[in-house]
Fold this sequence. Notes:
Order of helices and strands of chain A: HHEHHEEHH
Strand content of chain B: 35-45%
Structural class of chain A: alpha+beta
CATH class of chain A: Mainly Alpha
Order of helices and strands of chain B: EEHHEEEEEEH
Number of domains of chain A: 1
Radius of gyration of chain B: 19 Å
Shape of chain B: globular
Largest sheet of chain A: 3 strands, antiparallel
CATH architecture of chain A: Orthogonal Bundle
Number of strands of chain A: 3
Oligomer: heterodimer
Number of strands of chain B: 8
Strand content of chain A: 5-15%
Amino acid sequence: MNLRRDVFQAIADPTRRAILLLLASQSLTAGAIAANFDTARPTVSKHLQILTECELLTQEQSGREIYYHLNPGKIKEIADFIEPFRNMWDDRFNKLESIMKQYKPKQ
Amino acid sequence: MERKTKVNAEAGKQEIVITREFELPLELLFKAYVEPEIVEQWMGTKVLKLESKKHGSWQFETTDPKGNKHGFNGVIHEFVPNQKITRTFEMEKTPFPVQLEFLEFEQLSADSSKLTMHIVYKSVADRDQMLKLPFGQGINMAHNRLQDVVSKSKYHGKEQ
């Protein structure tokens, strides 16, 4: 469960969310990612390291460059994480709806 | 089953918004939040107290499959029939801080209505913990079932 908590901590940071958005459309090197932010390069590297540790990003060596990719499987896992919570409320509301459809005012 | 209930939980925010459209007239939807015996049915809880008015308070109690009782309570800050309920929600004997809930009821047509439930938590971390509860419970239940099966076959009555 530690890894999961890390994923949520990872996406709680606005810069890291911006990095994920940036990489949604293309794979980029650390330098190209850093060029999109005013933040110091080492700070961006730290963010990339955290995102990679949480498996939200994967690295790929291409010649002398390392490219960062989004890991769609892990992103989906975050979305799925909320599913049980949504299901809990959906079940309750379905019940509410069926009960009230049969509701007869008291005489 | 069509997915009618939507949960909007933006990353990094300490709030969530749950929306749901019902095939029910607004008055019936609202009644389901006011009549204690109806609340008991769809929330699966015992209603110890439900004072649906400003400055009123509420108290629910659920019993889990193991027979443990869990208390929930809060106070009602706003109560406008067929429009809104503003209330707090607290899980007793847990480290979770109290949360603030804004419930808005809207009429969509003569026989359809919409509920918007806006929940504000003390912190982003608290919100994420709460969101994870049902997920964790699902995992625990699967784990317990597995343990049951294992203990019945392998350890056969020696230990739980």
